[in-house]
Amino acid sequence: MRILITGSAGFIGQSLKIFLANKGVEVISYDPKDDSQNSVLDLQNLKSKIKDADGVVHAAAMSQPKLTYEHPLDCVNINIGGTANVLEALRQTQGKRPWMIFISSREVFGQAKILPITEKTPRQPVTVYGMTKAAGEDLCRIFSESYGLKTRILRFVSVYSGENDKLDRVIPRFIIESAKNEPLTIRGTGEEAFDFTYIGDICQGTWGSIQEVEKSQKLHDDFILSFGEPVSLKDLAQIIIEETGSKSPIKYEQASSFSSVKCYADCRKAREILGFKPKVAIREGIKLVVQEFQEAGII
Prior knowledge:
Belongs to the NAD(P)-dependent epimerase/dehydratase family. This is NAD-dependent epimerase/dehydratase domain-containing protein. There is one protein chain. The protein is an alpha/beta fold. It is 42% helix and 17% strand. The chain is built from ten helices and 13 strands. The strands form four sheets. Strands 2-1-3-4-5-10 form a six-stranded parallel beta sheet, with helices on both faces. Strands 11-8-13 form a three-stranded mixed beta sheet. Helix 6 runs parallel beside helix 8 and helix 8 packs across helix 10. The protein starts with a strand and ends with a helix.
């Protein structure tokens, strides 16, 4: 099996590339960090790379909250335009057309009024990034209905990993600060809660989706992948302090305008159809990240 991964140099893409290679999959990397020509905005280049693939995992996106907030037009162009280009490249492929798995986000639900979120939760994004992911989902559905493309949507919830993660995100940042006994700054009250999901579980869930889309005759479907248990930021900070043996204090600042308050999910559909079984609870996941950071010399 040959799978092209857009955003293959990103923190999710890198982990997925290693995971799939260990499964015997031939991975086609597609990321401008590896090759400046590999932009999702370059339709012709996409077409030349996609034609030999069995499927595409479209993970390329502008996703950092602060960056997408400050550069909304870039976010729209890359996330919506890039997704449209990948789908169009698939549509123009001669012969058997590859399937596509679109990596989406809990951000499409905005501040959901009823928790846990499920695939039936109304999508009401409140950020430009969330809107671009919702638009990408709609494009997938429409290309499936109009052109017969096989597409799947995977909505990830608060993914974290080790050294491949963006080090300014909350879990890496807290670990690095705690290793230095520096204050851990929570932007909010500390009661904000999310079901943080370890990258290994995300890779397993994505592999389940790849196996399902390969076998199924269904053109389009959507799934949520998360651990399913909310952890408050205050509890997260305390766990990290304990696991690093730190003396760091916890301090609080006003939340930013692009911050979420609470989100956790019910992944029953993914469990039943994809065989998704997340195994890494937050404390175990923090231990894994701390160990990886230590081995990489990050802390």
